[in-house]
Amino acid sequence: MLAHSTYDIAAVKYGALATMRSDVFLNYADYRESDEPTGLSYYFWVVRNGDRVVLVDTGFDPAVGARRGRTTLIDPFDAWTALGVPDEEDTTVVLTHAHYDHIGNVRRLKRARFVMAAAEYDFWISRPRQQRITRQVIEEDELAVLAELRASGRLTLIEDSQELVPGIDLLLAPGHTPGQLMLHVQTAEGGVLLAADAIHVDEELDRRMPFRHMCDIVAAADSYEIVDHLRTSGAVTHVIAGHEPSLMERFPTHPALPEHTIVLGSSAA
């Protein structure tokens, strides 16, 4: 792999939630395990090299997070500024899915261009009656912003898994939502899978314990198998679950935001 096709990944923990295991895992009572306190961490990711910057998700709007009982640790906009994420036409933003904690600050980017799965856009924008069954995880005004982006030509929809740019592949992994995306990123340390919410926490994959909010449990099980194959085959050295609290303890910190950001696959590590 050529150097210009490998990337460093900054994972920014911008929010947190203290909750119970029964609020994380689907049908938790069926496991016949005691209910205990746990937590979820909220991340977005900055994937970059000397040629390009790819922002993966935009986090929840701080006001929305507060209304939903989530703690904002750093305003995503402030984190973008600290990490030097430019709001320019050559900055690509991958939206892994359309839940409030992944598209909440899209409107704050005025020039960047966006990518998401066509199946995701169609479900939330074109079929509003279907999306009502999971309306607790979306904000209607944020979905309207996606429609505006599409109308303006700033949102590209993809039909299937494909290469985004050399060294970054977009992988469809439906289940949590109809068009959930993951990113397979080549780094100096090997492949890294940004699973986003295809895998919320490590235990979800390791024990096959689906997350509470699922659109299609059968599709989710198939997506687990895809992730597990990438992991066991050696195609990726790290699987990064989208809300795993322990992530911050496993990788070096980023000098620009050491309290909130870790670095994966850095050529300088």
TrEMBL record:
Molecular-function GO term, any one: metal ion binding
Stretches assigned to the Metallo-beta-lactamase domain: 41-243
Signal peptide: none
InterPro entries noted in UniProt: MBL_superfamily_lactonases, Metallo-B-lactamas, RibonucZ/Hydroxyglut_hydro
Cofactor(s) annotated in UniProt: Zn(2+)
Family under the similarity heading: Belongs to the metallo-beta-lactamase superfamily.
Name this polypeptide is given: Glyoxylase-like metal-dependent hydrolase (Beta-lactamase superfamily II)
Annotated source species: Microbacterium ginsengiterrae
